[in-house]
Amino acid sequence: PPVSIWYLSLPSLFSSNPRDFSLPNSSWGTEMRQLYEHYNSQCEAVTDGGEEQSGLWNRLPSYNRSLKYAAGGVYLSKIIQAKARLFTRNIRDPGAAFEYVIFANKKEQRCVCIFQAGHLLEGPPGNVHGGAIATMIDTVTGTHACVHSGPVMTANLNINYRSPIPLGSTVLIESSLDKKEGRKTLVKCKVTSADGARLHTEATALFVSIGVSQLIQG
């Protein structure tokens, strides 16, 4: 079956205060922090005076339980296992696995993810496992498709690995909208070194729009 990916923000109607995993923590290296500040400084924001400040980018919050915080989440959370957690956010030890933050640019139809790979993601000695890279590409392109088209599921993911990613390094995962055809959303993606000089991976992804009833039925 296709992989389900949702982009969900926390609506104000919930009184709980879940952890936002996209915010900086002590495990983030210098490159991760510098890139975060670069994009975060270009985000929409509210000034101390209450005025809205425009920006090209929006930082997307990231929680470890997606459906619990969806619109109508009070109902949806009852149909999944109580211990279910988002795959990329199920390890609480900072820096051990997937450390990432995604920024979306709706005007330019782009998303960028700053990803720092932890020691638990090893494949070839000293390098990131190809499955972990595929997971992050699926996460970023799926999030991008959801921002553009609403709830979607992955229908196809094609990946070309160009060069290994060293464990502990920070990379950029950039996605751009290719085209939209009815229920289909096609996204292109590339993974590069933090400075953009080295190409690690290229990918294309196809997503199909779905209704909430389809997600519930699996």
Automatic annotation (TrEMBL):
Recorded catalytic activity of this chain's protein: decanoyl-CoA + H2O = decanoate + CoA + H(+); dodecanoyl-CoA + H2O = dodecanoate + CoA + H(+); octanoyl-CoA + H2O = octanoate + CoA + H(+); (9Z)-octadecenoyl-CoA + H2O = (9Z)-octadecenoate + CoA + H(+)
Lineage: Eukaryota, Metazoa, Chordata, Craniata, Vertebrata
Keyword Chaperone: no
A family per Pfam: 4HBT
Organism: Neolamprologus brichardi
InterPro entries: HotDog_dom_sf (IPR029069), THEM4/THEM5_acyl-CoA_thioest (IPR052365), Thioestr_dom (IPR006683)
Keyword Lipid metabolism set for record: yes
Name of the protein described by the UniProt record: Acyl-coenzyme A thioesterase THEM4
PANTHER family, A to Z: ACYL-COENZYME A THIOESTERASE THEM4
Annotated family: Belongs to the THEM4/THEM5 thioesterase family.
